[in-house]
């Protein structure tokens, strides 16, 4: 069992709270150094912030009314493709770029040429 402790500071009130979370790993004790486990945890959150957060906040995935059949998976794949195209094109301001191309869809095709 793994225990993570960290201090969370509320940016609005400056109140600090100690947060504790637990995890389980299949790594051996030799593989599971504190440093390695921390790197794995941070890597997970990097994926969460880079992909899932973007799909939800910028592409409205959680607000989608589509809930049945294979359509949710297809839409998730399309959202992932859109983000991948932007990143491959070197876009760093994805929200601004999406707004720009939403009003000029013919120009968006140039991103995949």
Give a quick set of tags describing it.
single chain, 113 residues, alpha+beta, two-stranded antiparallel ribbon, 4 helices, elongated
Topology:
Blueprint: E1 2-9, E2 16-23, H1 34-57, H2 71-88, H3 94-102, H4 105-108
Antiparallel strand pairs: 1-2
Can you describe this structure?
The protein is α+β, with helices and mostly antiparallel strands and 113 residues long. It has one domain (30-112). The protein is 49% helix and 14% strand. The protein has helices at 34-57, 71-88, 94-102, 105-108; strands at residues 2-9, 16-23. The chain has a two-stranded antiparallel ribbon. β1 and β2 (16-23) form a beta hairpin. The mean pLDDT is 89.
Q: In short, what is this structure?
A:
The chain is an alpha+beta fold. It is built from 4 helices and 2 strands; from the N terminus they run ββαααα.
Spatial extent as radius of gyration: 19 Å
Our count of domains comes out at 1
Characterize the largest beta sheet: strand count, sense, and whether it forms a barrel. Answer: 2 strands, antiparallel
Q: How many individual helices?
A: 4
Helix content: 40-55%
Uncertain regions spanning at least 5 consecutive residues: none
